[in-house]
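Objective 1b: paired records.
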Amino acid sequence: MSPLVSPRSAGTMIPALLSFFTLSLTSPAIGHAQQPKVAAKATPTEAALDRLAKQPAVAKAMAALQSENEWTLTEQAALCEIPAPPFKEAARAAAFKDKLAALGVQKLRIDREGNVIGEIKGTGPGPTLVLSGHLDTVFPEGTNVKVKREGTKLTAPGIGDDCRGLAAVLATTRQIIANKIPFNGRLLIVGTMGEEGPGNLRGVRALFSGPLKDSIDMFISIDGTGFGITNGAVGSNRYRVTYKGPGGHSYGAFGMPNPIHAMGRAIAKIAELEASTNPKVTFNVGLVSGGTSVNSISADGVMDIDLRSESAAALADIDARLQVALRQALAEEKARWPKSTVPLSLVIDTTGLRPAGTTADSTFIVRTSLAAARTMNVYAPLTISSTDANIPISKGVAAVTLDGGGVGRGAHSLDESYDDRADGYKGPQWILLVVIGLLTTR
């Protein structure tokens, strides 16, 4: 997951319209805190989820997710200890596929991109829903991924993002199959490749451009920790910008256009770009390089640029102004040395494009996610972020990213941790209610 929204990092949060009051549910697995009743009438979706949680097969599965929580944690740690650096997730994919096979998932395969795909067939006709987690991490090959456990706290790179998501998918799948929970349609269980930065969502892009692209009606990604519902897709445009020249001696060749100076001019212009706050727009020069020595005019100046917004139109606008700034910097550096015949050029390589968009708060998938959180008596805010859900959202498919429960700290850092505390099991419980709710209620 691209770190944008807490607990991943700071970002915009849209308060969810949730009502909190004690429900007369009998299942001990729900684990309600005692709260005073208030005058509020459940919406049809909320009432349907309340009834769903009481159905025998669902209630049994919910109870098992609590009593067998250690199974989920064991799977989380086991997957985390299989390295999955960018573009090298195959070993973790193979293990995830084997675990799904052991649970009884059918039609398991690995597609051309490396995604793991399996199916659970419903008892009657209905929609196709994807339940997924991403297999990759941001950590390079050779990173120590051994999990350290202290009580309820697990520490290792990737333990929350997204080993927690993968474990929650496994736990949910396990209970649906073991308890033969009836539902309509088809549930696709997926482990995706390349969700993190350099992967550019390559796994989910392949999913929505392959044989299944026209059959997926709804999409859920489980990514990260806590209880957030991401229904806003932050788009991003990423570029590697290179100013190029022949280079030369800092004294003997002085008077020629300097690629690093051109890059400096560009950075100054980028720093002065106006960026709106509503919708939120951001820009960043994150990496710079070039040069061989202090007394050489470099042959190149290279920088990596990241632009983001929750609005496709706003992202396009800041991108257009960036392009102008880059070319103005080139022209100004050439004009600075009018007598020079030395060439200076600009190369702009696209390194990542993530589309922006929103699954409306009023859609069935968002209403069901909120209603399930209410039934669970957990607070689930609506948030925006950059996740696998960006792709289906951009294609008009109803999609959200749900957190996997528990408490996470230090995502994308070597000391990343996940704390299960007393109620980490509520994450998979919530996910199960959402999944079955989407496939059985309207």
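Objective 1b, second protein:
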Amino acid sequence: MANTVPPPSPASKLCRIIAVVILALIVLFGLAVLITWLIIKPKQLVYRIDSASVHQFNQNNNHLNATFDFIVKAHNPNGKISVYYDSIEVSASYEGQTIAFNTLEPFYQPHRNVTRLDAALVARDVALSEALSRDLKQQRTSGDIGLDVRIKARIRFKVGIIKLKHRTLRISCSPVKVHMSSLKSLETTSCDLDW
């Protein structure tokens, strides 16, 4: 008597077909993503601060009033990706305390473009701790104030006619040397990105 193998059940055939279809879809999706990436060749956005100055600096009774002006350069090196900046918040902090803040106008940045952003951050009667006030006075006497500049933006990428969903972009520029004298020139400060 010969041993015969029973034919596979219809349920096991169905499971195999479903597994093959799912595997094929995963492979096709992976190929589509790879081909899209190779065509678009996305590059990292680049930001830097080219200029920093301060006006109407007044520190009295542990309170600060000043206007900090920064020129931020936003570089989109991508050939096929443009960027919509829908909201932009810029803040300057000293030793962890935010001392000045402002929002910038939304804008559209085409591909392969460098956009100059003029950010005037206002410190209006900002209360400082005694230690922070003392440190700030010492730095001011030395001629430079070291600040951390942070930018938070809601952006959307556009590839061809497709606009992708909003993302929050966080940019950190540190340390930015703000010269108290206009005779000194600023060393350009590069910025780091955090998605």
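The first strand starts at residue 46 and ends at 60. Residues 11-40 form one domain.
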